[in-house]
Amino acid sequence: MQQTEATRSVPGIASSAIDAMLKRERDRFLQANPTSAKLAEQAKAHWHNGVPMHWMLDWSTPFPLYAKEARGATLTDVDGHAYDDFCLGDTGSMFGHSPEPVVRAIREQSTRGLTYMLSTEDVPVVGQLLSDMFGLPFWQVATTATDANRFVIRWCRAVTKRPKVLIMSGCYHGAVDDTFLRLDNGKPANRAGLMGQIYDLTQGTVVVEFNDLEALERALKAGDVACILTEPALTNIGMVLPEPGYLDGMAALAKQYGTLLIIDETHTISTGYGGYTRMHNLKPDFFTLGKPVAGGIPCSVFGFTAEMAERMRRAEAEAGPGYSGIGTTLSANALQLHCMRANLSEVMTPANYRHMLDLSERLARGVEAEIRKRNVPWHVSNVGARAEFVCAPTRPKNGAEAKAAMRPQLELAVHLYLLNRGVLIAPFHNMTLLSPATTAAQVDHLVATVGGCLDELKAA
What we know:
Pfam families: Aminotran_3. This is Aspartate aminotransferase family protein. By secondary structure, the chain is α/β, with parallel strands linked by helices. It folds into 2 domains: about 15-95 and about 350-460, Aspartate Aminotransferase, domain 1 (Alpha-Beta Complex); about 100-345, Type I PLP-dependent aspartate aminotransferase-like (Major domain) (Aspartate Aminotransferase, domain 2), CATH 3.40.640.10. The chain is built from 14 helices and 16 strands. The strands form 4 sheets. A 7-stranded mixed β-sheet has the order 4-12-11-10-9-5-8, sandwiched between helices. A 4-stranded mixed β-sheet has the order 1-2-3-15.
């Protein structure tokens, strides 16, 4: 009988122990959260599947957990339980919940209008802050990273006159249609769970494995790829780090074959001040960033080189008047710009990044030590303030290997065990994120709780 992802064996842990923990922790959650249970039942009357956005069902809990408030790196639910928050809104609150400068900016802007479809005094200041932080001279604002990626793909097709975008198997670039492909036994296929897709995505998208420069070059030789859209490290199929020389080799191949390079830093902004791009001196044609850039207010940006700006102007002139398909009414609204100004200048600072990176090392090395103590063949990877422990002995080098290492049933059990003891991590695999507000005590609590979880799994 072929094993599914849920039933696949886990190195160092008995399947019966996972099942027993999951049942035990679900029972504990049911008893401890009567208010969340009541609200979840009431919500079913008018919300599809009981939630306003279906991702809220992706947690390990038997019913949705209802939050009451969050400050810094602590979240409190409606039943009064406090959590050390290492999810941080799945990166949306990466710099902490309600940073004081952003709260002040919201308060200031709320009294003078939220959106005008006009520029404000913040515009030149934010442009300079973005350029100084990330190294690209020209910028545009959108509302989500999905929008930013979608708009940049359209620009790349317009300036190159080429039809295709190239992505990595296992990538994540929001809800951009062109990116919902993966490799299945070496062949492109729609990603699992994709709904409502009516046209063949392979007509406009090429997909290769991460860290495979030979496959990348074979794809680029056809001469029809407008752009490569990639994260500098894969972060949504577990964590896949670039091998030495891979990103530089990618940039060289893109230049050789006339293909534009887009670096999506929406997750890897955790790497350090200026993101992975600045920390590793990457030279993309375009750069996209969403989620945390305005401190939790929906906002995204994309930056580009002077050469791209000139090519974009020529493409606009050729297209003539009309709607470009790029931009939305609420993009670059006054509230976004004012919050982004506060966040970029007062929150996303080198000093705050140093705090986050130091604690991330403490977390990663601490979890590694707990794993070693119990002789479990797992490992830990981190990209700056983002860390993950993976239930496999070796680090994956591409999306296929990362997918093979996933153990959904174990992840459900671990997540619920941590949550029931006041530790909240991302609902997707075993990802953690640290903010400027995170404390050493919170990190040590997570590390100790992971150790306790392993003890129970090993003892069964």
